[in-house]
Write a structure and sequence with these properties.
- This protein is mainly β.
- It has no helices and eleven strands.
- It is globular, with a radius of gyration of 14 Å.
- The N and C termini lie far apart (39 Å).
């Protein structure tokens, strides 16, 4: 069972910032893409941001210009810098790592709570 180590969630006031990180095991050498999803109460899980091999980026429209996804290939780690946070960003954020040789849909982190409120 592959475990992803997530960190960085918490509580922040509106317009504040948080940085999430997620590390995959170093022995996985065929990662194709890494990214973040989120799920708010009573809503479906949605893609927030993703970075693929070659640096191709995908962002949800609601976070474009405020969030930045990046990855450190040497550390098998993906980051999500979240700025100008809004209450509607409140959700559990899940890391997703897709390994070319792994299961379809990739591996998932345990989730980290992000709460934006005053």
């Amino acid at each position: 069972q592959v475990q992803l180590e997530e960190s960085g969630g918490g509580w922040v006031q509106p317009w504040g910032s948080l940085r999430l990180s997620c590390a995959a095991p170093r022995n996985i050498t065929t990662i194709s893409r890494m990214g973040w999803y989120r799920q708010a109460p009573e809503k479906q899980r949605e893609l927030v941001a993703q970075i693929a091999d070659g640096g191709h980026l995908i962002y949800a429209a609601s976070v474009k210009g405020r969030f930045t996804v990046s990855r450190d290939n040497a550390k098998n780690t993906v980051y999500l810098q979240m700025n100008l946070l809004k209450p509607e960003d409140t959700a559990v954020y899940y890391c997703n790592v897709v390994d070319q040789l792994g299961p379809r849909g990739g591996y998932w982190g345990q989730g980290t709570q992000v709460t934006v409120s005053s």
